[in-house]
Design brief:
Elements (H helix, E strand, L loop, with lengths): L19 H12 L1 H4 L15 H7 L10 H7 L19 H12 L33 H10 L10 H13 L5 H9 L5 H10 L2 H14 L17 H12 L4 H10 L8 H6 L16 H21 L18 H8 L21 E3 L3 H23 L1 H12 L12 E5 L5 E3 L4 E2 L13 E9 L5 E8 L7 E7 L2 E9 L3 E7 L11 E7 L10 E5 L2 E2 L2 E7 L11 E2 L10 E10 L5 H8 L4 H6 L7 H14 L3 H23 L2 E3 L9 E4 L7 E5 L18 H8 L7 H14 L20 H13 L4 H9 L12 H6 L12 E2 L2 H12 L19 H6 L28 H5 L18 H9 L1 H17 L4 H13 L5 H20 L1 H8 L12 H15 L6 E2 L1
Length: 1009
């Protein structure tokens, strides 16, 4: 879609010859490129109008529009000949566009490479006539020059109170406190405003304010998305982002660490956590999906997000074909795809109850301290136990002289069955109830049994909690065609794990055999996470299925000799069933099978004992032979280690990027995952400068290229988004599209100046923000005159300050701040503020939303739990994106639902009540003083005379109502969970609550002036 530059029609720039990038390219891109542009597959008449050589070889005669086919066909009144073609349903070009084309061709048809694909360069400072004294920042000169050309005058500087509220909201997302406003207004020194800006930029609140826009671009959420929308833990990455802004990490490092922190030399844990940026995409655990199809979706999402965030290009268009408007080929998409295509063992079908590998532990600072303490305690206890070994050896030698009888491990045992009648005839089963063996997919366990199959048995169940059909739900140990097999199944087709021994039992194995299955709770079958032992020997396995990512429902009870169907009932003998709720080590499995009693082992000379025999004696001694003093030393070591391990298990993880084995990448025909075309290697789009020689062709090389001088886009794209953050609209309005279909910047010199300044001054984000907010352009009053409204309705010429409705998070956070409820706590797990009751049940079923109690209700909106399929309704109502995909453009609407939310949502009613309490306690003894206090808390200024009069009339009505209806007052004051000040009269507090609600709902309150 062509973006019309409404202001250019009235611009003096049109008095000069048309400029290709500004005037001609938008017409050609909008009306011609679809058929005569970069997409070779859709190109008509073999004519290209997107390149100078293509256009001038066939359709343009430079200097002679009348002889140029482009002009002839555009100007034709014959519908058969006219372009764009009438027969395809296209309207004719406006006469003004045809005239622009004519003037450009007659002027020699000077061509330009697309402006955003040329390296940014600052132009010479313009000469000013009437506004030479106005600029404060370098880019102000270009704004002033444009205003002079338009015969406009800048607005006066905003009042100090307004300016402080504006810059405080812009830099921290919160309003200034009354004490901050008082201090600023009392400071009449020339540097007062700069001191305020420096204070705001150094505030932790600034880091939080900056983070939320980045989370939206990174599609951050606390759930996976799609229908199942299971939970994930990515808030450690969110906290990394906050910390990066708090440290003012230069943007080039901010980029490199998020795209490739794991590939940096000696990468720290923080640098690895940073790479969670590209693990924030949606993932699915839906039954019946094609695994590879969705894995490809995830990689494609990374390409599209990277191109949007750093390049401002719509590369998603090239997934299926060459771009119709920009010089991006389908090959370019899959060359970028290759950078992100080799995460080790990435799958399309993912775990839906937590993080999907690869991930790492991500302790908070407090947790890190606790881990160090526990490590030190465990190490000290182990040193003490090591020091006690000479005594332990002496005690064991003495104990061995009295040791006798059988011994086995008893700890963690949940079942032990030695059957008096071991015979099974194919109909018998032994039921052990529904409480034993209820292991779920994250629970480690060990299963043991002795068995002797009858001759000729091909299929039989040894031990199970399995439904009575072979593809049922549950777990079971089978003997099938001479091989031991273990199944753990939620759903046969796609959820569970199945494995068998690679080799059948030897032909000589006709007597009693022993099977052990161990599982470590990792949700994996392969790589030793699940093992099958035959007679104590770890067996090589064939992994038949490995997708154990869903909890069992345990529909069957624990049974010996049955499960999996009537035809699977055991024939032969089974005995000595043992079940433990932990994973046994190989040594422990061997010990459990050793038949010798303790006294028999003790009689064997120490040097002649096998490792298993020695281990059995040692384990039995530690279990029951230690003296009291030595037992205390030993158990302190065991407990300290167990406490440390348990704490480590509770530490959150964060999904990260890792570099796995090379995986080939292919052009996918029409974007289909299974339609592979030519193989491609990792590379940046061909029309842009290549990655420098010597740089690796991986994510690290890509990240460094993105922030190199060779790349003309990143600096422009980022400063444009910062500008959007402060002014509501970017210098390029299409912040997500710097290509041919994007908008030509109304102030190209400003954009270029800022981009070069940002890049050449260390990618310093705070410096960039300070430069903008210190400028004369930013500090103007936002008051609009009728003439300015007509001339420049969207304030694209910047003859006044920005006036915008606050974004969603600021509206809520401001209400909490004004009420005194806001809890300023940095980072940590997500919280659950108020949400309409039953919303989750109505929209998705399953567990309902439960809001927090206490501080969790009043944290900043940045920390609110974000479920993708049901995003926080108060945020979405005020135009927050749903986080299902990357969004970089800020949008603002004005709907009745927003007004209803501000007046009736419990968040705002409760905030009004607490603001009313502040008015009554801190605002003074008169209604007028209390009104002024409310205005100062929310707007940073006193209420005007007319405002106080209007509020006084409202207060009188409210007091009359609540004096008559105490029940209504009490009902209003029960909204929200914050405690009510019992010292305040309910009727008066209810009246002031109504008054505070009006103040919180003023247009000025929810607007940045």
């Amino acid at each position: 879609m062509r973006i019309l530059l409404l202001l250019l029609a009235a611009s003096a720039a049109h008095a000069v010859a048309p400029e290709f990038n500004r005037d001609i390219r938008p017409i050609l891109s909008d009306r011609c490129f679809a058929c005569h542009g970069p997409d070779a597959g859709n190109r008509k008449a073999n004519l290209r109008l997107d390149t100078e050589s293509g256009a001038k070889s066939k359709a343009i005669v430079a200097g002679n529009a009348a002889q140029s086919l482009v002009y002839q066909r555009m100007a034709s009144t014959n519908k058969t000949l006219r372009m764009p073609p009438a027969y395809a349903g296209h309207d004719a070009l406006p006469a003004s566009d045809v005239e622009t084309i004519r003037a450009w061709i007659d002027a020699g048809a000077p061509w330009q490479q697309h402006w955003s694909f040329i390296a940014p360069r600052q132009s010479a400072r313009p000469e000013l006539k009437t506004l030479a004294a106005w600029p404060r920042a370098g880019f102000d000169w270009y704004v002033a020059a444009r205003l002079e050309r338009e015969r406009l005058t800048p607005s006066p500087e905003a009042s100090r109170a307004t300016l402080l509220r504006r810059v405080t909201l812009d830099l921290t997302g919160l309003p200034p406190t009354p004490s901050e406003a008082d201090a600023f207004l009392a400071d009449n020194t020339p540097g007062a405003y700069e001191k305020a800006v420096d204070r705001l930029l150094a505030s932790p609140r600034h880091a939080e304010r900056m983070a939320i826009r980045w989370l939206e671009s990174a599609r951050y959420a606390d759930t996976n998305g799609y229908q199942s929308d299971g939970v994930r833990t990515m808030w450690p990455w969110r906290d990394w982002v906050i910390n990066a802004f708090a440290r003012n990490l230069p943007f080039d490092q901010f980029t490199i660490q998020q795209l490739a922190g794991d590939l940096l030399p000696n990468a720290t844990r923080d640098q690895q956590i940073a790479t969670g940026f590209h693990r924030n995409h949606r993932t699915t655990a839906e039954g019946g999906i094609v695994d590879e199809e969705f894995r490809v979706e995830y990689v494609a999402d990374r390409v599209e997000t990277t191109s949007t965030v750093w390049l401002g290009l719509t590369m998603g268009c090239t997934r299926c074909h060459d771009h119709k408007y920009d010089p991006l080929r389908q090959r370019d998409f899959y060359s970028m795809f290759a950078f992100f295509n080799n995460i080790p063992r990435e799958k399309g079908f993912v775990f839906n109850f937590g993080n999907e590998a690869p991930y790492i532990k991500a302790p908070t600072a407090e947790q890190e301290t606790r881990i160090q303490q526990l490590d030190a305690r465990a190490a000290a206890a182990q040193r003490a136990w090591n020091a006690a070994q000479p005594q332990a050896v002496r005690e064991q030698q003495a104990w061995e002289r009295t040791a006798a009888g059988a011994w086995e491990r008893g700890e963690n045992r949940v079942a032990a069955e030695t059957l008096p009648d071991a015979g099974f005839d194919g109909t018998r089963e032994v039921k052990l109830g529904t409480e034993k063996g209820r292991f779920n997919f994250r629970d480690p366990f060990t299963l043991m049994a002795r068995f002797k199959a009858a001759p000729g048995v091909k299929r039989a169940t040894i031990l199970s909690r399995m439904e009575d059909y072979f593809e049922g739900s549950g777990w079971a140990i089978y003997l099938i065609d001479g091989k031991l097999r273990f199944h753990y199944i939620f759903r046969w087709t796609d959820l569970g794990m199945r494995m068998e021994t690679a080799n059948p039992l030897p032909d000589t194995a006709t007597g009693w055999q022993h099977v052990t299955v161990t599982y470590d709770g990792s949700m994996k079958a392969r790589d030793g996470h699940t093992k099958i032992y035959l007679n104590g020997v770890d067996q090589p396995l064939n992994i038949l299925f490995d997708q154990n990512i869903w909890p069992l429902e345990h529909k069957a009870e624990l049974r010996i000799g049955a499960g999996g169907g009537d035809d699977m009932r055991f024939r032969g003998e089974i005995s000595d069933v043992r079940i433990f709720d932990r994973e046994f080590s190989p040594a422990e499995v061997a010990i459990a099978l050793d038949p010798l009693p303790l006294d028999a082992i003790a009689r064997i000379p120490t040097a002649q004992r096998t490792p298993t025999q020695a281990g059995k004696l040692r384990a039995a001694f530690l279990d029951s032979g230690l003296s009291r003093p030595l037992r205390d030393v030993y158990y302190r070591s065991v407990v300290a280690t167990a406490e440390r391990d348990a704490y480590l298990a509770s530490v959150p993880t964060a999904m990260v990027m890792q570099e796995g084995p090379p995986r080939p990448a292919y052009i996918l025909k029409r974007g289909a995952y299974d339609a592979q075309g030519d193989e491609v290697s990792a590379a940046v789009p061909e029309f842009l400068p290549a990655i420098a020689a010597g740089e690796p062709r991986n994510r690290l090389g890509l990240a460094r290229w993105l922030v190199s001088e060779a790349n003309p886009l990143t600096a422009r794209v980022i400063v444009n988004r910062f500008w959007q953050m402060l002014f509501g609209t970017g210098l390029v309005k299409t912040v997500e599209d710097f290509g041919s279909q994007g908008e030509w910047p109304l102030h190209p010199e400003v954009l270029e100046w800022l981009a070069v300044d940002f890049r050449d001054n260390g990618w310093d984000m705070r410096r960039l923000l300070k430069t903008i907010v210190m400028s004369a352009t930013y500090r103007q009053s936002s008051r609009v005159t009728p003439d300015l409204l007509q001339r420049d309705p969207e304030n694209r010429l910047f003859a006044r300050g920005a006036r915008l409705r606050l974004p969603a998070e600021m509206i809520r956070d401001q209400a909490l701040a004004a009420s005194g409820l806001l809890v300023n706590q940095l980072g940590g797990p997500p919280v659950r503020p108020y949400q309409p009751e039953g919303l989750w049940n109505e929209l998705a079923g399953g567990a309902n939303y439960e809001n927090d109690r206490g501080a969790g209700l009043y944290r900043r909106s940045l920390y609110s739990y974000w479920r993708r399929t049901i995003a926080p309704p108060s945020m979405v109502t005020f135009d927050s994106p749903t986080r299902e995909s990357c969004v970089v453009r800020e949008s603002r609407t004005n709907t009745p639902l927003q007004a209803l939310a501000l007046m009736n949502d419990v968040t705002y009613v409760e905030a009004a009540r607490k603001l009313a309490e502040r008015m009554l306690r801190e605002g003074g003894s008169t209604p007028a003083a209390r009104m002024n206090y409310a205005y100062r808390v929310t707007l940073g200024r006193d209420a005007g005379e007319k405002e106080r009069a209007s509020l006084a009339r409202l207060l009188d009505k409210l007091q009359t109502r609540y004096n008559r209806d105490t029940k209504a007052a009490e009902a209003l004051l029960r909204q929200g969970e914050a405690e009510r000040d019992p010292r305040l009269d309910a009727r008066e507090l209810a009246a002031y609550t109504g008054l505070a609600s009006v103040v919180l709902n003023l247009d000025e309150t929810v607007t940045k002036e």
